[in-house]
Amino acid sequence: MSLSQFKTLTTSRAGILCGAALAAAATATWVEVQARRAERKHPPSGQIIDVDGARLHYVERGHGPPVLLIHGNAVSLADFEASGLIEKLALDHRVIAIDRPGFGYSTRPRDRLWTPTAQASVLQSALKTLGVERPIVVGHSMGTLIALAMALDNPTDVGSLVLLGGYYYPTVRIDALLTTPVAIPVLGDVMRYTVTALSARALLTRSVEVMFSPGKVPASFFPILSREMLLRPVQLRANAEDAAFMIPAATASSARYKQLELPVTIIAGAADKVVDVDAHSRRLHRDVPQSKLVVVPGAGHMVHYADPESVVAAVKAGGADVDTPVASLAQQTDTKQLPDAEPAFV
What we know:
The protein has helices spanning 3-41, 78-82, 85-89, 116-129, 142-153, 174-183, 187-192, 195-212, 221-225, 227-230, 233-254, 278-287, 303-306, 308-316, 329-332; strands spanning 47-51, 54-61, 66-70, 94-98, 136-140, 160-164, 264-269, 292-296. It contains 15 helices and eight strands. It has an eight-stranded mixed β-sheet, with helices on both faces. The radius of gyration is 21 Å and the shape is globular. It is of the alpha/beta class and 346 residues long.
């Protein structure tokens, strides 16, 4: 290669790199503008409290026995508003729904690993700040691991558990592999403002459809939760970190499930395409003898939308007794270790 050819090639490569850098910078700026615009359009609906170095956003409704609602990945406490669960439970209970660290309007400081155990600790501190004692804890999807951590680590502080569409045992997680780079500091920061920001937008509608399948996505879902609020870099980071911690957390927690002595109600959609019902809900029912199992026919992962009445009934009963006509199926079905499909929204 002649000197002139080398200079031409070098100049060409430098131009490509410069152009890529400018495109990335432009994308990052656009992503930040979209995030700030979404926050202005959808301001916090509740209150903010400072707890253990994190700022937590929560809403509180109603009066009566306390209930804590813990949402899953990708969404925020607004998921319980969109499903109507807060409104239904608030008729007879003091309902507290909290944005988990990194979701909605809650912060996720980088001074610790935000495992389910760490999140459980912060939520318990928040409850003490709010003067809440022995609540019924309702967790959905990823929120079930946090609810279980609360009950396992501080059993006297939890009245009962109501677990919805949960991931309880270590099974194959495609999202844990795909999203790990997004959880890595620096590299993940760049990705969340560039390639991941764009890919998440392209996949969001399909991912939500899988969550609700075989049902339809409710018309109120995106208007209440806001697409852009779900796609902010801070929330993409929280999603990725939680996905990375899911398998280790389920491994550690599942070895302790037999220690649970409080009432537990397990509710799952029979047609859940995100978390396999046999490998998780039915297996947990076998491992926790005092548990009750409700498998809702025709319902998917968002079982609290498909059958909020079962959730309300379980909460009203304190998790001690609900009508579970299909619970006996759990005793007849062998656990199947199946890979979970489309699991990023857990």
